[in-house]
């Protein structure tokens, strides 16, 4: 395990993105979104993904000179065509416009088509909470999840995030995948030589498995809830909700047609839409109740849950976003630990593009 500062990782990522054709501005935007994941401890969506973005560029599936644009609008709602660009750039572009609509109309809602992987959903939702609004962000993703009672990949991990402003040091951020586990968690477990629990994955026949290599053998991720008797149908329909809002509504690809993040998997024929889809929202609070009053009660909500009776006296109760905030504060001071396998991947990119770590 090696340790790097956020500035080191961000500078390296900027250089990589510029090397594949991004402008300085877009490279900086993309790198900032990536490193935000590493800072918050969501290592599966940080600089470890750089290799994947470069792979998609090599396969001709990312337009690094994309010019996202609004193609349809009606007051608070609008549709963005990402021009095949990095979702790390397309989503921030769309979120800024979403915030402007919220300031004008009380809320802003954006459906995005023709994009790619956009990093952690929470980073985009938090752009609203930083302005004392409520933020929402969702994306569909590579199909790796079957519906309950199926053994066919029809849905992605399809994460969704909500961010609520608070008067505390951190905002209340709910950011979760609708699969039992994010695919990146499997990659981390494999790199670290750890076993995976029953319920994370199923084999090619749809049966529960603990094989760390099961995805390479035709296996799939389980929906949130994991097993049918534990409520996998709830994860299935939540993932479906994300798929509809991000893709059916926007004109992106949905279900099994969502473009895979890995370049070695081909696109399916007869695509019903364009690229990957996202959905973003921002809501002003004052239309519901005075903003200061709402924030005071969010703080009260946090305090109430933090003081809930514990199973073990020495076991702290956390609220959504708190662990990530604590991790970010710690890593800003002590640096970001990067797995040796990821370091090797980054060094290989550095060698290819003539960039020093």
Write the layout of secondary structure elements.
Elements: E1 2-4, H1 6-19, H2 24-39, H3 50-58, E2 69-74, E3 77-81, H4 87-105, E4 107-115, H5 121-129, E5 134-139, E6 160-164, E7 172-176, H6 183-191, E8 201-202, E9 208-209, E10 220-221, H7 232-248, E11 276-283, H8 291-306, H9 322-334, E12 336-338, H10 340-353
Helix pairs in contact: 1-2, 2-4, 4-5
Largest sheet: 7 strands, mixed
Shape: globular
> What top-tier CATH class of the domain at 66-283 fits best?
Alpha Beta
Strand content: 15-25%
Find the count of extended strands (DSSP E, 2+ residues).
12
H/E topology pattern: EHHHEEHEHEEEHEEEHEHHEH
CATH topology tier name of the domain at 66-283: Ribosomal Protein S8, Chain: A, domain 1
> How far apart lie the N and C ends?
14 Å
Low-confidence stretches: none
- Please tally the helical runs, counting DSSP H or I stretches of 4 or more residues: 10
What structural class do you assign from the helix and strand content? alpha+beta
Question: Order of strands side by side in the largest beta sheet?
Answer: 2-3-4-11-5-6-7
Task: Evaluate the radius of gyration.
Answer: 20 Å
**CATH superfamily caption of the domain at 66-283:** Malate/L-lactate/L-sulpholactate dehydrogenase, NADPH binding domain
- Percent range of helical residues: 25-40%
CATH architecture level-2 label of the domain at 66-283: 2-Layer Sandwich
